[in-house]
Design brief:
Blueprint (H helix, E strand, L loop, with lengths): L2 H8 L8 H4 L2 H6 L4 H12 L6 H19 L6 H11 L3 H15 L6 H8 L9 H9 L4 H10 L4 H16 L6 H4 L5 H15 L4
Helix pairs in contact: 4-5, 5-11, 6-7, 6-9, 7-9, 9-10, 9-11, 10-11
């Protein structure tokens, strides 16, 4: 059957979970220099499993964040980063949460974990996890710190950590990933070969 029809049958009204957002990093890296093509690719990939508009928009915002991180030069300006994402957001819930992140980043002291979870969320819904991952990236200054903060919020820790790590990895580069973490990575050689192959295709080398 048409997978989009299956997705609609499994989740009446469509799933707004964060699974689509969690898996968009390769698309964001490949199409980082063409946001319109990135939107098309992410919407198509998301609808295979997540047909709800909030699930798709969460995947788009995560993809935009990774694409912006890949394209960034110079030190991280968290406020400017989130403001640019806010200009791309459409739904009220994402705009509200991105605005909340701007407020958090403007404070002299970080909000408590409890406040972050209360305002941004830590659940499996895209709107309760994508903003949290974005905050973890923009509120920190290294790959490891971003991932550690993301998982410290509890809830759907693996997905929020994966999304924050995708943005941070795109910004800081592979060298920033702790060697002890890479040493524990399952199928590391295969994943790294895929990454090189993706770059080769992007650059027209094969």
């Amino acid at each position: 059957e048409d997978p989009r029809r299956v997705a609609e049958q499994l989740y009446p009204g469509g799933s707004f979970g964060n699974g689509a957002a969690m898996r968009v990093a390769p698309l964001a890296c490949f199409y980082h220099d063409d946001l319109e093509e990135l939107r098309r690719a992410v919407e198509g990939a998301s609808r295979l499993t997540h047909t709800h508009p909030l699930g798709i928009e969460g995947a788009l915002l995560q993809a935009y964040a990774v694409a912006m991180a890949v394209s960034s030069t110079g030190p991280l300006n968290g406020l400017a980063f989130v403001e640019e994402l806010l200009s791309l957001a459409e739904s009220q819930v994402y705009r509200r949460k991105l605005t909340t992140i701007i407020g958090f980043l403007s404070r002299p002291r970080r909000p408590s974990r409890r406040e972050v979870v209360r305002e941004l969320g830590n659940g499996v819904e895209a709107f309760n996890s994508v903003p949290t991952a974005i905050y973890a990236f923009t509120a920190t200054s290294s790959f490891e710190e971003a991932v550690r903060m993301a998982v410290s919020f509890g809830g759907d820790m693996d997905t929020i950590g994966a999304m924050a790590g995708a943005i941070a990895g795109a910004f800081y580069g592979r060298e920033a990933i702790p060697a002890r973490w890479l040493g524990e990575l399952e199928n590391r050689d295969y994943i790294e070969r895929l990454a090189v192959r993706l770059w080769e295709v992007k650059m027209g080398l094969g």
